[in-house]
Structure formats: C-alpha cells, structure tokens
Design brief:
By secondary structure, the chain is mostly helical. The chain has helices spanning about 20-35, 40-50, 50-60, 70-85, 90-100, 105-130, 130-135, 170-185, 190-200, 200-210, 225-235, 240-250, 255-265, 265-270, 275-285, and strands spanning about 5-10, 10. It is built from 15 helices and two strands. A two-stranded antiparallel ribbon has the order 1-2. The longest helix has 24 residues, at about 105-130. The protein starts with 6 loop residues before the first strand and ends with a helix. About 35% of the residues are buried.
Length: about 290
C-alpha cells in the first residue's frame, strides 16, 4: 500500500504541537492558489490551537482509498452536494471554486446541485442561488482526461425505470415496471417503494421522475450513488446506505470507491456513523 507522506496542505501533520512560519505560508498559499480562499474555520484554529488544525488535516488523506485514489473532483462535488443540503452558503461557494480549479465543467456543478435539491429543499437552494453570479459567468477549464475514475461514464438513461412520465397519474403498469427495475438493478425493493406504491403511487412516480433525470448533462452516473451514499451515512439512514451500495455495485463501482463515499461521511457525522454503515451494508462490501 502506498505510503502517505507527512505533509498535508503545506502542514507537517506528524508534528501537531509545532507550527512554523514556513508551514503557515505554505498552507495559505495552497488555499489561495487553488482558488478556494482562506477559510475562517481553519484560520480560527491556526490562531488559537494550531494542533487542532493539524490533527484535522492528518485525517483528510485517509477518507479515500490508498489503493484506488480518486480524482479530487469526486470529493469536491460530494462536498458541494453536502453543503447545499446543509445550506452552508460559504461552503458551496468555495467548493465550487475549487472544483472548477480541479476540472469541473459547469454542467458537472449543475448536475450535482440538481441531485442535492432532492434532499435540500428551498433552504439549500437559497444557499446555492447566492452563488448564481459565479455560475452565470463560469468558464469551463480545459478538458481533463482524469476528471473521474476509470470506467465511470455519463449515461442519462442509467436510471430509466420505463415508467410513462407523459402522465402524472401512476398506473399499475408503472408500478410493475418500477418494481422490476429495482429487482433487476438492486436485487431487492426498498421498503419505501412498497409503502408509496400502496399509499401514494403518484408521489413515488413523481419522485422517480426527478431522481431519474437529476443528472442530465455531464456527470457520470456513478456520482449519483456516491452522493446519495455519502449523504445517507451523514444522516445515519440505514436503508439509504444499503440502497446506494447496491446501486453503486450495479453500476460497476469498486469496493474502494464505495468505501470512499462512506468514509468521507466521517467529516460531518463522526466515526460512529460507520457503525450504521456496517449494519446496513457490511455484508455487501465484504462480498465485493
């Protein structure tokens, strides 16, 4: 397994009780040079308890696999998704800037925000909308060969259940097609699907219409289970974790890629959230 060096974002994280002027300069250059800008949260600890910042930074590289390190863009889009749901306006802004620096197309950002809107409600979109001017004038960076992991691909029909969206009412045939999609794709049907099929089939159909078409322009289809899996770890939803591990597996995601999405949840949920992930999908991960 490749060794992880002592430095993270300009800081020697192996010496948390020491902070040099050169480290501070290197750290700030890293953040300003990436177009992200200096973060008040980190500047606070840099002033009062630099060891806290260093220990936080020491954890960063361990979120993702050392065996299959993902392109930076994957976690950056994950942060945009999570910050939009949290309605963290400043976080959405600086992660959009950093994603652009790391090769994100404007359509990658908009597809990610579309997925986030499924769970963010108006509160999250007000936070994202405050950054509309930047997105309006957004300039796509030069095409990058490794924006996403190998074998990830854009496929706007990846989640097509075959339901007839030209009508708003849900027919028995719509429900049969949807159930067949879940069985064919996941191998099981989530409980909420059966609940809504019995009690509010129109709501289930409307949800699926939104879900199936959230990614429209450029985002690889594998990003949807990555984003949803990470979010469900953060909020501790057993069934959401299992559904998205199954979906990611069906789309060819590797064990390490699924673990990246799960472990990135530690940033906002802490390590205890991983007990829920183990309960929900430990058997699936062990079989990959």
């Amino acid at each position: 397994m490749p060794a992880i060096g002592p430095t993270q974002d300009g800081l020697d994280v192996t010496r948390p009780e020491e902070m040099t002027a050169a480290e501070i300069e290197a750290y700030r250059a890293q953040y300003t040079g990436s177009n992200k800008g200096l973060l008040d949260s980190f500047e606070f600890w840099l002033e009062f308890r630099p060891d806290v910042l260093k220990r936080h930074k020491a954890r960063t590289r361990h979120y993702s696999s050392a065996l299959e390190p993902p392109p930076a863009l994957v976690e950056l889009l994950g942060a945009i998704h999570q910050y939009t749901i949290m309605a963290f306006r400043e976080g959405v802004g600086y992660e959009v800037r950093l994603a652009q620096t790391n090769g994100a197309l404007r359509t990658d950002i908009l597809d990610t925000l579309s997925v986030a809107f499924i769970h963010s409600g108006h509160r999250g979109m007000y936070a994202a909308a405050s950054y509309s001017d930047y997105l309006r004038d957004y300039v796509d960076p030069p095409a990058a060969l490794e924006r996403f992991p190998p074998r990830w691909s854009f496929n706007p029909r990846a989640f097509d259940s075959g339901m007839d969206y030209s009508t708003r009412e849900a027919s028995a045939e719509d429900m049969e097609r949807l159930e067949a999609w879940y069985l064919r794709t996941l191998g099981e049907v989530p409980r909420y699907v059966g609940f809504l099929a019995r009690h509010r089939p129109g709501l289930l159909k409307a949800y699926r219409d939104r879900y199936e078409h959230a990614i429209r322009d450029s985002l690889p289809c594998q990003m949807l289970p990555w984003l949803m899996l990470n979010y469900n770890v953060v909020r501790g939803f057993h069934e959401g974790i299992r559904e998205n591990v199954l979906l990611g597996r069906a789309l060819g995601m590797t064990r390490e890629q699924l673990l990246d999405a799960i472990c990135f949840g530690v940033l906002h949920a802490g390590v205890n959230a991983l007990g829920v992930a183990e309960e929900a999908a430990g058997d699936l991960l062990a079989s990959l």
